[in-house]
């Protein structure tokens, strides 16, 4: 699978409206056949940072970045960003989330 983490530095005056700005992009991406997950979080340390954790099948990543909703999503978020997002994108073994062996809960 293709595993991606992106950190977005959002302008302070856009922090509250950012989730709505990316809603259509998020919904369209989650509906893609090659999408495994697409999850937004807000940083606990930086009040202006959103983190996106996403994964695609090996075949699903390229259609995602070539889609109309990907281009529209980038343009929708652009006015809300304070700087260029930081990304880690890697092909890894697996098909989704596994249980954490070091912290089993019965």
Summarize the structure.
With 106 residues, the chain is of the alpha+beta class.
Describe the protein.
By secondary structure, this protein is α+β, with helices and mostly antiparallel strands. 25% of the residues lie in helices and 28% in strands. It has 4 helices and 4 strands. The chain has helices spanning 18-21, 23-30, 61-65, 68-77; strands spanning 2-9, 35-42, 49-56, 86-91. Strand 2 and strand 3 (49-56) form a beta hairpin. It is globular and about 40 Å long.
Strand order of the largest sheet: 2-3-1-4
What characteristic shape results from the CA principal axes?
globular
* Number of helical elements: 4
Count of DSSP strands: 4
The helix fraction, in percent, is 25-40%
User: How far apart, in Å, are the first and last alpha carbons?
Assistant: 29 Å
Write the layout of secondary structure elements.
Layout: E1 2-9, H1 18-21, H2 23-30, E2 35-42, E3 49-56, H3 61-65, H4 68-77, E4 86-91
Antiparallel strand pairs: 1-3, 1-4, 2-3
Helix pairs in contact: 2-4
For this entry, give a set of tags.
106 residues, four-stranded antiparallel sheet, 4 strands, 28% strand
């Amino acid at each position: 699978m293709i595993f991606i983490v992106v950190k977005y530095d959002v302008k302070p005056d856009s922090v509250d409206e950012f989730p709505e700005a990316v809603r259509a992009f998020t919904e369209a991406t989650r509906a893609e056949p090659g999408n495994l997950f697409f999850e937004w979080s807000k940083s606990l340390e930086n009040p202006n940072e959103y983190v996106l954790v996403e994964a695609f099948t090996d075949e699903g990543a390229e259609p995602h970045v070539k889609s109309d909703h990907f281009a529209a999503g980038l343009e929708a978020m652009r006015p809300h960003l304070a700087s260029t997002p930081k990304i880690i994108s890697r092909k890894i073994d697996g098909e989704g989330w596994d249980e954490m062996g070091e912290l089993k809960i019965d």
